[in-house]
Structures are given as structure tokens and as C-alpha cells.
Amino acid sequence: MGIIISNSVLERILREDVHYIDLTTYSLGIDDLMSVARVYFREPGIAACIEEAARIYELAGARAEPLVRSGEEVKRNQLVLEARGKASSLHLAWRASQTMLSYMSGVATYTHMMIGKARRINPSVVIATTRQTPPGARELYFKAVISGGGVIHRQSLSDSILIFNNHLVFFEEPRVKNAVQMAVSRSGGRGVGVEVSSLDEAIDALSAGAYYIQFDRAEPESLSLWVKELRKRFPQAIIGVAGGIMLENVEKYASTGVDLIVTSAPYRSRPVDITTKMEKA
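Above: the chain sequence. Below: its structure as C-alpha cells.
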């Protein structure tokens, strides 16, 4: 999986939990005892960032081996990672590694569930997540989404042109047409997308040269009609929808015939229940 997650990201996670010393392990005098830590899923889920969980142990001075890969389905009570080393190293990494793995696997599992529900209705629909990740951990959240089978809609402001209403307020009427034509002229050959709230705005955007339109918080009933009309007039257009879409209503939006469902819901998913058990080696 071609996502670069640097040691500095993982070191930050580790250092959040250990400022200077693990006082409990030191006070108990068990620092140098050789031991093993085994990480288990307490419930079924999709593993994500398991490789990074192992790297956190290694950064703390242990040797770690992931026993599954990111993207794999994991069963209840399945062993997914084993780490060996001094008790001081294992305890330094324990919570940081487990918590990160728990949250990222929750994102992957939720994404996987959304895709399953959506594609039972619309086999070709794509679930794409926004760039609205919790600050400071974007790489990990993106890897988790991809592990769950989703795609990333936008990695950052720098990778695509997507015009929102907060951009359109700076243009005179016809705002959508004027904004799209300006963006196309300055895009350097990149495609231009526009967030719209009505069929008329979608037609204006596509007529002016946009390749992608994204309906914002449209009702599924109206959206179905709009998609059918746009398919007739602009058969090459890519049609997406965003705003308030989650596991509970994704099937309704998939049934509208859109190409793309854009969501931030996986980022707010429940973590997978994971535990770590240690013993002397």
C-alpha cells in the first residue's frame, strides 16, 4: 500500500504517552525483564495500520511482527501482532500502539461496511472520504480508509480544483459559469469540479467546462431525478454527492445512480475493541 507514514508521525504518537520515563515500570523494577506482548482483536473487523502499530514497538526498542496485513478481515479473538523485548520497551509502546491500531481499524471497518451496503444497491458506486480528518494524523486515516476499500476524495487543497459556495461569493452572476471558466483558464490542464445545490447549478457548471459536480445535502428523491437528466445531457460527467451521508443512509444515496459518495463518517467511527496481553519470555 503506497502510503508514506514517516517515523516522525509515529514518534509523536509514542511521545504523547511518554514524556520522559515510564514511572510505573521503573518503580516496579521490571525494566530489563525479557517479555512478549500479544495483540488480539476482541471482535471482528478490518485491520488497518497494523504495520505502523508494529513500528511503534520497534521505535520503543522491541522487535515486532504483524501477523496480518492492513486490509485483512480479522476474526474475534484473533492474534494480529506479537512483540518481544524488554518489559520497559513493551510498556512504552503498549497503549500508543494499541490505541492507534484500534482507531484506524475502526475507520477501515466502517468504510468496508459502507461499501458493502452501497454496492448491494449500486455495484459501481465509489465511497470516497474527505480531507476532514482529525488534525495531525491524516496519513494514518487515509491508510485506514484505503484498507477498508475506500478511496480518498482529496488529499489536500493542492491535488484538485473543487469550487465551493465560499469561492463563488467572490464572483458576479452568473457565478457558477464565471468561476468555472476562470478556473479552467488557470488550471494548467487539470479538471475542475464544483459543489452545487440544484440541477440548474449543475447544468451551468458542466456547460461551462466542469468535469465533476458534487451535490451538497441533496434529498435522495430529488437527486435521482437530477442524475437521470444529467446523464442524458452530459454523459461523460462524473456525479457525486456529499453531506450527512453515513452507514444508516448510504443505501438511499447509492440508489440515486451517482458515481461517487463523499463522506467523513468513517473518521468518526467507533474504534475496534483490541487488547494486549503480556507475559515473561
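The chain has two domains: 7-113+270-280, 119-268.
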